[in-house]
Known about the structure:
Layout: E1 2-6, E2 11-17, E3 23-32, E4 37-44, E5 66-72, E6 77-81, E7 86-91, E8 98-103, E9 110-115, E10 120-124, E11 130-135, E12 142-147, E13 153-158, E14 162-167, E15 173-176, E16 184-189, E17 195-200, E18 204-209, E19 215-220, H1 228-231, E20 239-244, E21 250-255, E22 259-264, E23 273-276, E24 280-285, E25 291-296, E26 301-305, H2 313-324, H3 327-330, H4 337-343
Antiparallel strand pairs: 1-2, 2-3, 4-5, 5-6, 6-7, 8-9, 9-10, 10-11, 12-13, 13-14, 14-15, 16-17, 17-18, 18-19, 20-21, 21-22, 22-23, 24-25, 25-26
Amino acid sequence: xxxxxxxxxxxxxxxxxxxxxxxxxxxxxxxxxxxxxxxxxxxxxxxxxxxxxxxxxxxxxxxxxxxxxxxxxxxxxxxxxxxxxxxxxxxxxxxxxxxxxxxxxxxxxxxxxxxxxxxxxxxxxxxxxxxxxxxxxxxxxxxxxxxxxxxxxxxxxxxxxxxxxxxxxxxxxxxxxxxxxxxxxxxxxxxxxxxxxxxxxxxxxxxxxxxxxxxxxxxxxxxxxxxxxxxxxxxxxxxxxxxxxxxxxxxxxxxxxxxxxxxxxxxxxxxxxxxxxxxxxxxxxxxxxxxxxxxxxxxxxxxxxxxxxxxxxxxxxxxxxxxxxxxxxxxxxxxxxxxxxxxxxxxx
Length: 348
């Protein structure tokens, strides 16, 4: 597993770590981006189920490579080949800071970028980094973009309480989620794609039903929660990031109050674990879900372990079912009402 650290001097430090959290520094490297780094993402090129019409051999990308995308202060995105530590190309189209990056998890090397110019742009690295679509949600800034696990949806969050999900094939807006009172700065899908978690400056992380837009959980970082008129201003408890664990039962959040919190989707009142981490800016989860990494303003990255436990069979069955079944279809199943509510994440 590779982990990236944003450094204040425009460099990105890449370390190789194992799933126990041990950093193998002798296998690491530092990449000089030449500009203030705001976002990073790692993508892996694998064989696709549907063949491309273009010849991959013609382009810069070879199918076995790991790629590092670096979003810069000047609006450019630099793409590095990690096998050779070489700069492959630069992507030009954003007008200002690239605030968020995310590669599609299907290995297609499609990249989503969110910028303070108010747009999300989609890039195809198999086509020499061609920018093939611009999504405009209508807000001043965009903070983050995220592909769904099946790559059929793209979620974007930004200023003015913006939370939008698009269809990644038609690029039509599927749903706008209403409920935050301040800028929304981070977003993540659950592993089964049924839930969406968003982090906002209104002191909350909210868990949504992707298919209905209903609020399922409110993870409050200030008690009692401020009224909307106060939550929309400076409050000292801005939630900077939120990410699902691989098991789909835990959510890690970081907040300006200096704490990393680990929550379960079965209890929105009290976090399961808390760790002190001042000046946290971003949070990410390892592919297997056992490690959560937190980046801070001083350029360092701290690693923490997610709670480990044997998940009950009912939760594993729920995730398997929800991978293929929207919330509306669950209501049509011949199941007891209480089971339906559990499958829709509406009861523990």
